[in-house]
Amino acid sequence: MVEKLSRYNHFFQMADTLRIVYNARTGAVVRLDSRSWKLVRDGKCRELDPEVSAVMREQGVLVPGETDELALAMEKYRRLRSARNKLMLTIAPTLDCNFACPYCYENRLAGTMSKETATRLIGFVDRRMKEVREVSVTWYGGEPLLAAEMVLSVTKRIRAICGSRGKDVSFFLVSNGYLLTETLASKLASAGISGIQITLDGPPEVHNRRRVLRGGGGTFHRLLESVRIAAEAFKTVKVRMNLDRENRGEWEKLAAILEAAGLSGKVRFEIANVDATNEANSEYKNKCLHPEEFASEWVNFARSAYRRGEDGLLKLPQMTVCSKVSAFAYVIGPGGDIYKCWNDVGDPKKVVSHVSESEAPDKNRQWARFSPLQWRECRVCSLLPACMGRCPDLLEKSGPETACGRWKHCLQEAVILHTMSKLKGGKNGKPEKQSAIAGATIGCPE
Ligand code: SF4
Ligand code: SF4
Questions:
Q1: Tens of pLDDT along 52-77?
Q2: What span, in angstroms and rounded, lies between the C-alpha atoms of 49 and 196?
Q3: What's the predicted TM-score (pTM) here?
Q4: CB of residue 341 inside a 6 A radius of ligand 1
Q5: CATH number of 86-323: 3.50.50.60, 3.40.50.150, 3.20.20.70, 3.40.640.10?
Q6: Which ligand 1 atom minimizes the distance to the CA of 393?
């Protein structure tokens, strides 16, 4: 059988000890000994030891000559997008917020979800129970804890519906954290919320210039206390730091503060790049980091995570499907309007349905129209199967140069660090099959 090397292979070498192939379609990382490495680079795969070529074949690094890998990747993407066994809801019980962060893209609007809308929302979930095996809910806003009673009540009701039908359900909360108290955290956790994300934008002197209360005033110490409370109450606590030109070098100080507070082993600290995607934050655009700049910061962050042994942060890209392009994922605003993208909430032109409608939302199948293959850069990109255009909204608005994100600029470092963390104590010189990272996830890419 004629075989060929996958078009989605990426080869990386570090010193004379680590030679690895990462495959962006399967997510596999295969480690090669020096002889196999040379044969592969010289295009002499037929001369590989059978044991080595078997691993390469199994991991998609070597494929039958006639394989159309682009078609395989797009088929996986199509299947993931059209799956109807998981209902993914993002619910904003209010678009109001007690903060006035300069980069915020939410359209702040007063008012919270009414009891009537909540009841219609429950009906919407109930009508979809026959099809699904699993429901996942992300509470979002505005600041959802301004509507804490609504969050609690709807969480309990969705959990009860799922429980009575034998469906799995999970709840996550994205909050600025300012209103989190021990009592509230305990109520939210008892209601079924298992994880929370709170954003800190650096050490106090930096954070307090950025994440300010609407009436003015810093929030750092209150939020650090909220992180401590959250770490006691929830299974998963993410501390996110939004990076831009003003605070790009400050994450180390925040990491040190979390460590000194005894929180570093209890929370997952991540950095994120902020994209100015709509009019509400277009003025902020000049302060945003170019993906290449963010990638260089991320490499420092990942090296630090590696030194600290926080291997969970050393992720590799993998296919992610978000609500905008999925058949069974919806973003619900406080008035019960249904949108497809997190960036659309509050924009009446982007409403696709309402929770009171009995018909399926998005009956025009807008979700199915997007394809990263519309862009030449994506069609020929060796990262396509793991990226798929990253954020479809950003790709449509700004093109691949912005949408590409960090991976194009730091894949080598990411793969090497990831592999080194897996190989601590590994078998030198043998092709190493890595654990499954070949899956795919559903959600907004970070
Ligand atoms: S990933 Fe982008 S397109 Fe998808 S829901 Fe999030 S913001 Fe919208
Ligand atoms: S957005 Fe960039 S990295 Fe992603 S598939 Fe397109 S060209 Fe490749």
A1: 999 999 999 999 999 999 999 999 99
A2: 49
A3: 0.90
A4: yes
A5: 3.20.20.70
A6: 3
